[in-house]
Design brief:
By secondary structure, the protein is of the alpha+beta class. The radius of gyration is 28 Å and the shape is globular. Strand 7 (170-174) and strand 8 form a beta hairpin. The chain has 5 domains: 6-187 and 237-261, Rossmann fold (3-Layer(aba) Sandwich); 274-352, Beta Barrel (Elongation Factor Tu (Ef-tu), domain 3); 369-441, 2-Layer Sandwich (Alpha-Beta Plaits); 445-557 and 646-662, Ribosomal Protein S5, domain 2; 562-635, Alpha-Beta Plaits (2-Layer Sandwich). The protein has 17 helices and 34 strands. Strands 2-3-1-4-5-9-6 form a 7-stranded mixed beta sheet, with helices on both faces. It has a 6-stranded antiparallel beta sheet with strand order 16-15-18-11-10-19. Strands 25, 30, 31, 32, 33 and 34 form a 6-stranded antiparallel beta sheet that branches.
């Protein structure tokens, strides 16, 4: 006798993300897909604020996606049916962190590109990341119904500017730039299409190339289609489809490609429980709701799972199914579940075993700006801290910091739009009026030399029952913090050794000037303890003093974030624009003429971008266009510092007072 879930357990599932640069029509495409699948009876409008996935009032007013949203629908029937969990992500670069959290739980993606604007800065950022993750991706060239659309130009631009192998799989046949636009798919039976497919696929498929060279007739249309599917699922080739989410043109071809070319699988519901939390929000009564993708196994209500630094019990769960969120007794592999009862759960936590081949970590650049948040009404710092803490649960990259001396609260930002959204959210969800001080860059410190220091148990005024010696050396950018040992592994109890290593990583969150030290090698050179009286706490307390002394001897240089920019302006406005760039400290390249306009590319300090954006319309008569994205860190013209929040281990007396209070 079949169990009630036997059909579900054998059904193929696909967790699909929709990604795009802002205003490319991503949410409109999501609406069209839901309509085509029968989930909704009427297509919502972004402009009217009636879309299904933009459920926040703030999203509806602004017409942008701020938080990721999940919908479920079914494609096909019988053994070929696929259950799709569709995740609509933000397109605005200020909310890239929300995209980052989703990427680790996806099986495939659709990257939306406007047929009018073409490849934009966020498009490039997203495709670089999709390529690095080898995430199977289809490309949909949207807005073929808009005036100025040019599908041929944009498809060519995608391959050229994104630097990935693409193959056009459909085209506009009539009505380009109008509501009557019609598209048609290419077929492998067409000799010209077959040749183009072969040229792209043979570069990634030695067997296909060998078959063609041995006997041209062996490469049949069916063989080409299978090769395209294999290359797409491996993330090596990206099929491109053209159409309009508003009119529906080309969408059926995209739907067929989602079902046939992306890697829908039958997940292992009987295997060990393994999943990942990618989103946390608060319910109507203030309880935490954790969104988790299950990769294998089954999760039942009342089961205990890791949550934060402890263990929590799932008190209730719901699963996205059939266009609705259904309460169930259990969730199974392949599904996205909303879990209740995990009070300490955090974004990125594993549910059960750590998912194999699904590492969780940074894929985009971190926020490059920060600002101090100040209550503007009767609310105090305590209420503001609580509210910002709640928001940091939903977006850990808010990076909430508090100056212990003045109590000032600061948050990390990707841009000014994020700041405006944060201000509105605090007012509408928490009833808190706030104002922001000037936005400043988030710098890093890079080690310039080698420095060492040590403190010995019961010697030289060491107040802690521990011996710790550390040497600090520079590491290349991107190398991270590496902890090594020159002491014998058995010279300290494992808990003491672990305490030193963990404290080293935590302490380097604030270097000599208060900024993170992201890349260096720290070697433990001395160790010692009292078998009767020493504790892990003593090693945790002593390590910051030793490490900062070593860091002072090594020296650091403050580096500020730098954005790469692309600026278009009328040729007549170029002299004024060039002066504005010079005032902003930008380093532009040689301008290139494109018709009656100039295009400049170069680098500009991150904290000058917003000023340029405000100044550009007046300098160019509203015709200037500035695109920018984080590129690298460069030495700051003058060292910038920020208040410490770690008890200040650079100042021995101040730190010891702080440390003894904690102990």
């Amino acid at each position: 006798m079949q169990s009630p879930h036997s059909t579900h357990s054998t059904q193929r599932t696909l967790n699909l993300g929709i990604l795009a640069h802002v205003d490319a029509g991503k949410t409109s495409l999501t609406e069209r897909l839901l309509y085509a699948a029968g989930v909704i009876d009427e297509i919502g409008s972004v402009d009217a604020g009636s879309t299904r996935t933009d459920s926040l009032e703030l999203e509806r007013r602004r017409g942008i996606t701020i938080r990721s949203a999940v919908e479920n629908f079914r494609l096909g029937s019988g053994t070929r049916a696929v259950s799709v969990n569709l995740v609509d992500t933000p397109g605005h670069p200020d909310f890239i962190a929300e995209v980052e959290r989703v990427l680790g739980v996806l099986d495939g993606a659709v990257l939306v590109v406007s047929a009018v604007e073409g490849v934009q800065p966020q498009t490039r950022v997203l495709m670089r990341t999709l390529k690095r993750l080898a995430l199977p991706t289809l490309v949909f060239v949207n807005k073929a119904d808009r005036r100025g659309a040019d599908d041929v130009r944009v498809v060519g631009e995608i391959g050229r500017r994104l630097g990935v192998p693409v193959v056009g799989m459909s085209r506009v046949v009539d009505g380009l730039g109008t509501k009557d636009v019609r598209t048609a798919p290419f077929t492998a039976a067409d000799p010209h299409v077959a040749r183009r497919l072969l040229d792209v696929l043979a570069a990634h498929d030695d067997a296909l190339l060998a078959s063609y060279l041995a006997d041209e007739r062996s490469v049949t249309p069916g063989r080409l289609r299978r090769a395209l599917s294999a290359a797409t699922r491996a993330g090596r080739v990206h099929p491109v489809y053209v159409g309009s989410a508003v009119t529906g043109a080309g969408v059926p071809d995209l739907v067929d490609a989602v079902r046939e070319l992306l890697p829908a699988v039958r997940p292992d519901a009987d295997g060990p429980l393994s999943g990942r939390v990618f989103k946390v929000e608060r319910g109507e009564h203030g309880e935490k709701l954790a969104y988790a993708r299950l990769f294998s196994g089954t999760l039942a209500v009342r089961r205990q799972v890791p949550a934060g630094d402890g263990v929590g019990r799932v008190t209730g769960l719901a699963v996205f199914a059939g266009g609705a969120l259904e309460r169930r007794a259990a969730a199974r592999a392949g599904e996205i579940a909303v879990l209740r009862g995990l009070a300490d759960v955090r974004i990125g936590d594993a549910v059960g075993r750590e998912p194999r081949d699904r590492p969780y970590g940074r894929v985009f650049a971190p926020p490059s700006l920060e600002t101090v948040v100040v209550p503007a009404g009767p609310a105090g710092e305590g209420e503001l801290h609580l509210a910002l803490g709640r928001l940091a649960e939903q977006d850990p990259l808010i990076g909430l910091r508090q100056d212990p001396a003045g109590g000032r609260l600061s948050v990390s930002l990707y841009g000014e739009v994020q700041k405006e959204v944060l201000q509105t959210t605090l007012a509408e969800e928490f009833g808190l009026a706030v104002r922001f001080e000037e936005t400043t860059p988030i710098c890093v410190e890079r080690v310039t030399g080698t420095g060492a220091a040590h403190e010995v148990l019961d010697e030289d005024g060491n107040p802690f029952l521990a011996t710790v010696g550390l040497r600090v050396e520079p590491a290349p950018p991107g190398g991270g913090v590496v902890f090594r040992r020159e002491v014998e592994l058995g010279s300290l109890p494992l808990s003491f050794m672990r305490a030193v290593e963990e404290t080293v990583h935590a302490t380097l969150g604030q270097g000599l000037y208060g900024w993170q030290v992201p890349d260096c090698t720290v070697t433990m050179t001395h160790s010692g303890f009292c078998s009767i009286r020493s504790t892990a706490g003593a090693f945790r307390a002593l390590t910051p003093l030793v490490l900062m002394a070593a860091l002072e001897r090594a020296g650091t240089v403050v580096h500020e974030p730098v954005h790469r920019f692309r600026l278009e302006c009328p040729a007549a406005a170029y002299p004024a624009v060039a002066l504005a760039l010079a005032r902003a400290g930008a380093v532009p390249g040689t301008p290139a003429a494109e018709g009656d306009a100039y295009v400049l590319e170069g680098h500009v300090p991150a904290d000058r971008v917003h000023g340029l954006e405000r100044e550009l319309p007046g300098l160019t008569g509203g015709e200037g266009v500035l695109e920018s994205a984080f590129d690298h860190h460069a030495p700051a013209a003058a060292p910038r510092s920020r208040p410490r929040t770690d008890g200040n281990p650079l100042h021995r007396e101040e730190y010891l007072l702080h440390a003894h209070r904690r102990i």
